[in-house]
Amino acid sequence: MRSSNRLQANTVSVAFQKQEVLKALSLSLPDGKMTVIVGPNACGKSTLLRALSRLQKLDSGQIVLDGKSISSQRSKQVAWELAVLPQSPAAPEGLSVHDLVRRGRTPHQSALQQWSTIDQAAVARALELTGMTANAHRALETLSGGQRQRAWIAMALAQDTDILLLDEPTTYLDLPHQIELLTLVQKLNQDTGRTVAMVLHDINLAARFADHIVALKNGTVHIQGSPEDVVTEDMMSKIFNLPSTVIKDPVHGHPHVIPK
Questions:
Q1: Which of 55, 67, 84 is nearest to 8 (CA)?
Q2: In this structure, what DSSP letter does residue 208 have?
Q3: Domain ranges in the chain?
Q4: The dihedral formed by the CA atoms of 138, 182, 34 and 14, expressed in degrees to the nearest 10
Q5: CATH class of this structure's domain 7-259
Q6: What does UniProt give as the signal peptide span (predicted)?
């Protein structure tokens, strides 16, 4: 079965040591939109993102990309369509921003197609989009947390895919840098039309930046839809077991959760 959306999970189940983490979960990512996956700890958020990116083996079900099972497609073909940034990525000490971003072009290289002006232009464009051009020759370890995250996102952008998956990209960042990073990703989504899906812990940031929110509970989709449809007092109670009041943010207009 093929939907109008390019990337979807069809009745996907994943278990670790007989503990089921995803339970016959089905999900279709809206094309060209920014989707945020939320839920309590150990509900399967990161496992779902890894499954969507073919980094996680499934026990049953399938991930479908462009109407075909992603497991049946060549790795290079998948990498032309989908880029993923895992939690807490690591790089060798001394690696420069430019060299990191160059790695995003690896899927486009082959014995017959070496580094080209197209690759260089893609790297330059990714650095510019993320505001990292001036830091291109700095070592990653000399950057602030926010700058490092920008560098990793630039690497994913250099891969030049239509779909971008980010697993907790704001981890370890203070609030100003979280806002800065999410504003950047939102702008990239709006300016380039990329489909973005990310895992976030902060429900208020999810409500502020998402077009579409998916709330997981016990390994399955409990509710999904617009921030206004998903971020409710009932959802906060059922998903997070947190009594709260949800108001309309007076500045941005999105739902805002105030725990009781």
A1: 67
A2: H
A3: 7-259
A4: 80
A5: alpha beta
A6: none
